Amino acid sequence: YEHVDNNFTPLPEKYITNIMLVGQNWREDEQNKLSDTMILCSINRKTKTMTMVSFLRDLYVKIPGYSSNRINAAYGEGGTNLLTQTIKNNFGIPVNRVAVINFKVVVDFVDAIGGVDVDLSPEEVEIINNGASGYLNGAGVNHLNGDQALTYARIRKIDNDFSRTKRQRVVMEDALEKIGNMSLAQQSSLMTEFLPRVHTDLTR
User: Fold this and answer.
1) What is the pLDDT of residues 40-68, one digit of tens each?
2) Measured between alpha carbons, how far is residue 22 from residues 86, 147, 198 in Å?
3) What torsion do the CA atoms of 115, 194, 18, 100 make, to the nearest 10 degrees?
4) Distance between CA atoms of 150 and 136, rounded to whole angstroms?
5) Terminal CA-to-CA distance of the chain, rounded, Å?
6) pTM
7) How far is the C-alpha of 120 from the C-alpha of 142, rounded, in Å?
8) CA dist., res. 124 & res. 120, Å (int)
9) 133 vs 144: CA distance, rounded Å
């Protein structure tokens, strides 16, 4: 939004591209493929900035053609088309593109960029040490490998889903900063390696 004469005015849609990142942890043969993580990345081409907004998976909404349910059921019932329609109908937000990423890809990607640096609480360190490869010595800023970063991003039992989605954005922000500091050759190599592993309509 632009601030003009003390009033917030929506930017024209031509300046905005909304990309929905859907994280999931199911196998191809599984039924009930619910979306575990939903982060909307809104790219403002006028200001050259990006805003990330998380949608809590337990958010109760009206799903077009179905009864009201948790928002992650929209993806399970009708894939990306129904999920984007649900977002538009309930929140008035058009989703221009969707990328669906398996958590195994997240682990490999974080390892490929050399890990991420995250400020951890003692409780977070304990959960990561009990659930991921590698060992962290204590609270504070820690360098996490891919398995540790994913375990961190999925923590919820010590607080709530609001904190869980914040952790996911923390990992993304650090990863994006690292990618931004890479050379074009390194960025191109990452795209070549990982884009085929992401189910996306970004090229359409």
Assistant:
1) 999 998 888 899 999 998 899 999 999 99
2) 14, 18, 10
3) -100
4) 14
5) 27
6) 0.81
7) 7
8) 6
9) 10
